[in-house]
Amino acid sequence: MWKEYYHAPGMYDFDYSLRRLSMDPLIRTNMKERYVDVPVRLENDRAVVRVKAEGDIEKPVFSVMSDHNEEQDVIFEHIRNIFQWDKDLNDIHQFFQQTELSMLFHQYQGTPIVRDFNLYDSLMKVIIHQQLNMKFAYTLSTRFVQTFGEEEDGSWFYPTPEKVASLEYDYLRNLQFSQRKAEYVIDTSRLIVDGELDLQKLSKLPNDEVLKTLGKIRGIGPWTVQNWLLFALGRDDLFPAADIGIQNALKKWWQLDEKPSKKDIEKKSMEWSPFRSYAALTLWRSIEG
DNA sequence: AACCAGGGAAGAT
DNA sequence: ATCTTCCATGGT
Predict the structure, then answer these.
(1) A 231-260, residues with C-beta < 7 Å of strand C
(2) Chain centroid to CA A6: how far?
(3) Which of A29, A44, A45, A199 has the CB geometry, 3.0–4.6 Å to A22, for a possible disulfide?
(4) Catalytic residue (choose from A13, A116, A121, A243)
(5) pLDDT of chain A along its 289 residues, tens only?
(6) Was domain A2-87 assigned CATH 3.30.310.10?
(7) Closest nucleotide to the alpha carbon of A131, via C1'
(8) Which nucleotide is nearest to A132 (CA to C1')?
(9) Is position A243 annotated as part of the catalytic site?
């Protein structure tokens, strides 16, 4: 068992992040004790890591602990990247003070981008969640993981690309996937196993190159690429204009009768570049619960 | 019952 | 290039 502490440079609302993480039934969170258990895939091994809030929004301190004693540095580095503790959210807050979203950022301070735990898992989840209402979306992804993935210490690991590539479409249809969705999930996994798609390599490329590569794959459109860039890679400047949640939030924020058009959204959101992701997160947050 | 859901492919202009 | 229509289900 090891335990390490870390201080973030600016404000950081970890309790909000926990609330978001707790929306996913596959992720074990505890709001009262303020921790989340993060499943970590290693080279040929797995670890479950507990990340716990020890401070508050103004003075964020975190503890990271695990009883997996090998590759401790790799694990800690991975956790730091997921939660992006080194990004100074005071700078983001400062930036939005000169925009029309200043009030919103004042109300919801220190909203971080918490990345999905794994590049491949994230892509599968985004494909599965396309167009579905949140409740059914989580039902589907939970069934998918609990049927084909693996559990360890109460935490669920997504199935590997190899495992998913070996499935028949009917296995997913039985879980109430549509035929299309079953094809998207399995075929994309097969591309990865065959070496035709390398997510690690993609993660080092600029957004437009990722869009060019991922967008060619059947079942992956602009919304899915944008969400993957935002949540898997944690990129700062994504604004999913096609997203219903974003549209609803802007409708409310701009006091419109109808949802604003994709084009209007894209144009206006340019004022929030290069930190559009934070605008998106904060807008989502403004219409939650 | 009708319409929507944190879309995308395929077909039609 | 841009616009419809269809895909499949569960939720409200």
Answers:
(1) none
(2) 22
(3) A29
(4) A243
(5) 999 999 999 999 999 999 999 999 999 999 999 999 999 999 889 999 999 999 999 999 999 999 999 999 999 999 999 999 999 999 999 999 999 999 999 999 999 999 999 999 999 999 999 989 999 999 999 999 999 999 999 999 999 999 999 999 999 999 999 999 999 999 999 999 999 999 999 999 999 999 999 999 999 999 999 999 999 999 999 999 888 899 999 998 998 888 888 888 988 999 999 999 999 999 999 988 6
(6) yes
(7) B7
(8) B5
(9) yes
> Which nucleotide does the CA of A230 lie closest to, via C1'?
B6
- Of A residues 75-104, those with CB within 7 angstroms of nucleic strand C are none
Q: Is the CB of A176 under 7 A from strand C?
A: yes
Q: Which residue is nearest to nucleotide C7 (CA to C1')?
A: A180
Structure tokens given for A92 = 């983001």
A72 SS3 class: helix
Cβ pair A265, A239 in contact under 8 A? yes
Q: Which residue in this structure is represented by tokens 């978001």?
A: A20
Bridge partners of residue A272, in order along the sequence? none
Strand C bases, protein C-beta under 7 A: 7-12
Q: A217 vs A33, A119, A162, A184, CA distance in Å?
A: 42, 16, 18, 9
Structural domain spans, chain A: 2-87, 119-232, 244-286
